[in-house]
Design goal:
Largest sheet: none
Number of helices: 8
Shape: globular
Length: about 260
């Protein structure tokens, strides 16, 4: 039977598939850690109070990368190079979503609108991350090998999403509502396309590793396309709404250390 649980269980049970999955995840988290670190260093003077939260966000992403690498090490596996067509963060950056790496590599302070662009990008991508980790938490929170890692990462992603809601609402109240809405919509529509393309690329790689039949691969591809059609029609709206989170100041403290997950 095809289900998210059965598909991930197949990946978990196969060393090569698990190696690819963790390598892709670790690469994306490391990239996010670097980006947040640079943004924190370049925050404009008027928003310096935001810098520690951005640094905390980056530290969490770095931690997640270490967790995925630790899971590989536990099974005696080495990371593999991330195939370009599966590199979610790189593909988003190439589409002009978020802040360009050229800007982050420079030493010029960012503008307030740059910070809002970063937060909008994070609001959209953290929505995706939270949903994916919620699914894994539902099925694998008690798994002896990956359960603790799933719980830690899921909690952090929830905090990241709460933080972006709160900060974007603060900027909206300061007169930036129209720019925020436009930027969120642009990010969301681009993200759902990139997510579709990356999902198809990862599925094709997993199909070869796991020996899926052509019929099964076609069925999974049809499901990915159907999800994209839904998101393109109405689903993207969940990524652009803003509401004050129950947990305020979610990134107001120091990053928690990575637990011993492997």
């Amino acid at each position: 039977m095809l289900s998210a649980r059965s598909l991930f269980q197949e990946i978990l049970d196969n060393d090569e598939a698990f190696r690819l999955f963790c390598s892709i995840a670790a690469g994306g988290e490391a990239q996010g850690g670097w980006e947040n670190g640079r943004i924190a260093a370049l925050v404009p003077a008027s928003e310096r109070e935001l810098a520690p939260k951005i640094s905390r966000h980056g530290a969490d992403e770095d931690k997640h990368g270490r967790i995925f690498n630790a899971l590989l090490k536990k099974r005696g596996l080495e990371p593999v190079a991330v195939p370009p067509e599966t590199d979610y963060t790189m593909l988003l950056e190439r589409r002009g979503i978020g802040l360009a790496h050229e800007k982050l590599k420079a030493d010029r302070p960012l503008t307030v609108r740059d910070v809002i662009t970063y937060l909008a990008h994070s609001r959209v991508t953290e929505q995706r991350a939270c949903e994916q980790m919620l699914m894994l938490r539902k099925y694998f929170a008690d798994h002896p090998d990956v359960g603790r890692a799933v719980l830690v990462i899921s909690r952090d992603e929830d905090n990241h999403l709460a933080y972006t809601h709160e900060e974007l609402l603060r900027f909206a109240a300061a007169g930036q509502a129209r720019f925020i809405h436009t930027t969120l919509r642009e990010c969301a529509l681009a993200e759902i396309r990139i997510h579709r393309d990356v999902s198809l690329a990862v599925m094709a790689r997993m199909a070869r590793i796991l020996g899926w039949s052509a019929a099964r691969s076609a069925l999974l591809a049809a499901g990915i396309h159907a999800m994209y059609a839904y998101e393109r029609l109405v689903g993207w709206r969940r990524m652009v709404t803003l509401e004050m989170p129950r947990r305020r100041n979610a990134l107001g403290g120091p990053a928690t250390p990575a637990p011993e997950v492997a």
